[in-house]
Design a protein that fits this description.
Blueprint lengths: L24 H11 L1 H4 L3 E6 L7 E6 L2 E6 L3 H14 L7 E3 L5 E5 L19 E2 L2 E2 L3 H13 L4 E3 L18 H11 L5 E6 L17 H17 L5 E4 L16 H12 L5 E5 L19 H6 L10 E6 L23 E6 L15 H10 L7 E5 L15 H12 L5 H13 L3 H21 L37 E2 L19 H6 L9 H4 L2 E2 L10 H25 L6 H31 L12
Parallel strand pairs: 1-3, 5-8, 5-14, 8-9, 9-10, 10-11, 11-12, 12-13, 13-14
Antiparallel strand pairs: 2-3, 2-4, 6-7, 15-16
The protein binds 4-O-methyl-alpha-D-glucopyranuronic acid.
4-O-methyl-alpha-D-glucopyranuronic acid (GCV) binds next to loops.
């Protein structure tokens, strides 16, 4: 089977994107429906725009006539939903639809010189060699991919704003940025920019103190200029006082002071200020037993609840550490009822296989939403997994994560299994048994990866810096606050209120007791919250050490089973070749993780595997 690959990922059934003379999402909706006449097979679609409906839309059917009524961008979302349902041979999505989150954001960590921080799909789509540099055709394809799943905000530059990316808000680069924004506008996608908190220092000011009137005036003027070029800019994204980025702490000010000052500059233009809460001490001494990194975000922000301007949104990573394979939901989500919050997830597979190992994230997000009622947050952001690779995501299956993210941010209650099925069908159109096999492979992929990497919520056993492959003690004596403290008897950090760092106290009931109590703490999070002896007996009667061995042997065996399934799939070229090549690497990685982890714990504990399997001495 050969796919016409024009970079359309899950939309290979649509022709090339309509030309760029179209100015609005409503024009785009009409053009897309016109182009897809074959798919509509005799149906006529009437479009009616009611601006009050915003991103929402209603679909009704009357014989061969389908009525699509929606807001300016709503009609475009409705058109894509309709076309995707037809292609997937599903029932038409009749009825009223509106997104759960008003802002559904994609954060790219692209640098002006063309690299992508934690990018695994090639170089940047937006920058090269210290300049904005993009292919307009690919930009239109991207706009369409994003719109088809409802993503409506695109931040193109890294939150670590390295020279010369600050020029994105300066006159030298703004005309080109304005052109880029106009490519995305007909897809209902608004741009956002990461800014450098200390930017005023480049322009003759000797301070970036948020309470200094000159600093506030500088940002006000800067925002006025930027909005002249991009009037619908969604806002600014800020990483401050985190991992050596500048911020208000330098001036003895709070993050409410810093965020509010910037938010006031954006407010007259309807812009939002997105302030990241990924703040912790990245210069910790491993001998310090009081500081406990996953407690940091709560400690920095919870007491500021209610002190932020209306157009500030605090963006919080899903877990309290940093996008590990398994973490509890960040306790900060429960602590700030009077503040606008956004949930940040990471599509780039930094710690989850780097788009070499297969890792479909939908089931993981479902667990987050199970623990975190969606109404706690009002926006969602995802760190992008896109790059200049022909298929956009490196591994062709990694596109499922972008697809599922958009659809989940639109409706967090959507079943991840249904989304993965829809992605499989749109992307490949395999016969039924093959589609079922691909679906099962993706659904199980996260659990398989989890089994062969760090056990039971322990986190951080990856190779330092690169974050691919095992290094059980790689972060043990490092500055980053990431310790497991394994010795010959036990492993893990006690985070209980009773005997440990007290992190469980940051959670409201019933989560607080659930995690505090060893018996009720879910097995898969036991080593996140508790320090356990290797001979600790789990609920199923196995000792901790036996569970670690079993998971690692099973994780590798299950990877072999994934490889077998993959080999039997009739995937189109080049996806088949790319996926098989990467599967060989995944097998090597899983084997390495299995043997290094098992040997590490065996050498410490001296405990033999009850099943007599090979563990290296
Ligand atoms: C953009 C982790 C990553 C960094 C990233 C940071 C963040 O520490 O390793 O590359 O920096 O998170 O989210 O700001």
């Amino acid at each position: 089977m050969k796919r016409t690959d024009h970079g359309l990922t899950w939309l290979p059934f649509l022709p090339q994107p309509p030309v760029h003379t179209l100015k609005t999402p409503r024009d785009m909706a009409r053009a897309e429906l016109d182009q897809a006449r074959e798919l509509l097979s005799g149906r006529q679609v009437d479009i009616d725009v009611n601006p009050d409906l915003g991103d929402g839309f209603t679909l009704t059917q009357d014989g061969a006539i389908v009525h699509l009524c929606g807001g300016e961008s709503g009609v475009l979302y409705g058109a894509y939903r309709l076309l995707m349902a037809l292609k997937a041979r599903q029932e038409l999505p009749l009825g009223s639809h509106a997104p759960y989150y008003a802002l559904r954001m994609l954060n790219c960590w692209d640098n002006a010189e063309g690299t992508i921080e934690r990018g695994y799909s090639g170089r940047s789509l937006f920058f090269e060699d210290g300049h904005l540099d993009y292919d307009p055709v690919r930009m239109r394809q991207l706009g369409r991919m994003l719109a088809s799943v409802g993503i409506n905000v695109l931040c193109i530059n890294n939150v670590n704003v390295h020279n010369p990316a600050h020029k994105l808000i300066e006159e030298e680069w703004l005309p080109q940025l304005s052109d880029l924004a106009s490519i995305f506008r007909p897809f209902g996608v608004r741009m956002m920019l990461s800014i450098d908190y200390a930017h005023p220092l480049r322009h003759g000011l000797d301070t970036a103190d948020p309470l200094d009137a000159r600093v506030a005036a500088w940002w006000q003027e800067r925002a006025d200029i930027v909005y002249r070029y991009v009037p619908d800019l969604a806002g600014f994204l800020v990483k401050a006082d985190s991992e050596h980025r500048p911020g208000p702490f330098t001036y003895g000010r709070t993050h409410a002071d810093g965020a509010n000052m910037l938010a006031r500059a954006l407010a007259p233009h309807g812009g939002r200020l997105i302030w990241r809460c990924f703040v912790y001490n990245c210069l910790q001494d491993w001998r310090d037993t009081v500081t406990d990194r996953p407690m940091a975000a709560y400690q920095h922000y919870a007491h500021l609840d209610g002190q932020f301007e209306d157009n500030v949104i605090l963006q919080i990573k899903n877990g309290p550490f940093d996008f590990q394979v398994r973490e509890p939901v960040s306790p900060l989500f429960y602590a700030m009822p009077k503040t606008n919050l956004a949930l940040e997830v990471q599509l780039a597979q930094e710690y989850t296989g780097q788009q070499i190992d297969i890792y479909a994230m939908g089931p993981m997000w479902k667990e987050i939403f199970d623990d975190l009622p969606p109404q706690r947050v009002m926006a969602m952001a995802a760190v992008s997994n896109l790059g200049r690779d022909a298929n956009y995501t490196g591994h062709p299956f990694a596109a499922v994560n972008l697809f599922a993210y958009g659809m989940t941010a639109w409706d967090p209650s959507t079943d991840p299994a249904a989304l993965i099925r829809l992605w499989c069908r749109l992307t490949y159109d395999l016969e039924q048994a093959q589609e079922g096999a691909l679906h099962a492979l993706l659904m199980g992929s996260r659990r398989v990866y989890e089994k062969y990497t760090a056990p039971l919520g322990l986190c951080w056993m990856v190779n330092p810096h690169g974050h691919y492959g095992p290094s059980p003690s790689g972060y043990e004596y490092a500055l980053w606050g990431t310790y497991h403290k394994a010795n010959r008897d036990a492993v893990g950090v006690d985070r209980t209120e009773k005997n440990g760092t007290g992190m469980t106290r940051q959670y409201p009931e019933p989560l607080r007791s659930l995690y505090e109590n060893l018996d009720t703490c879910p097995d898969l999070l036991k080593l996140f919250f508790h320090r356990l002896r290797y001979d600790y007996v789990m609920a199923d009667g196995r000792t901790l050490i036996q569970r670690i061995y079993d998971d690692h042997f099973e994780g590798y065996d299950e990877t072999e089973a994934l490889a077998q399934t993959l080999r039997a799939l009739d995937l189109p070229s080049p996806d088949r070749e790319v996926a098989l090549e990467r599967m060989d690497l995944q097998l090597k990685n899983a084997r390495e993780w299995r043997d290094v982890t098992n040997t590490f714990f065996y050498r410490l504990s001296g405990a033999k595997d009850a099943k007599g399997r090979r563990i290296y001495d």
